[in-house]
Amino acid sequence: MDAPRPRQRPCTLVVCRGCCCGDARKHPGHDHDRQLRRLIAAAADSAGAFEVRTTDCLGPCDQANVIVVGPSAEGRRAGGRPAWVGFAMDDDCTDEVLQWAGSGGPGLAPPPVTLELQFIEPPRNARVRSRR
Fold this sequence. Notes:
By secondary structure, the chain is α+β, with helices and mostly antiparallel strands. It is 32% helix and 14% strand.
């Protein structure tokens, strides 16, 4: 009998919810909690295609809200690298992030063209860590 195959790491959405991102004082009128609930619900419905995590601060606070779309293990083997999405606040952006993650994410599916317009440079320390 074959041993069960280990679960492959799926595409991961890392959602900043620290000092600036997710802060109603910085972005009044935006329902940050609703956005996070949408992302989590979509991940639950994705049959493991992607997962959602939150973090306190990703760094580029002047481009809040920030979401990092990380490649799956398969996507990384195909050359995919994390994509940093800035100003990720409206429903259209959230829809595009979900569409891309559901299609496989970096390395496996091209991002929507309009989402690419929101790609930002990661902070210097994040670029160094990602090369390991």
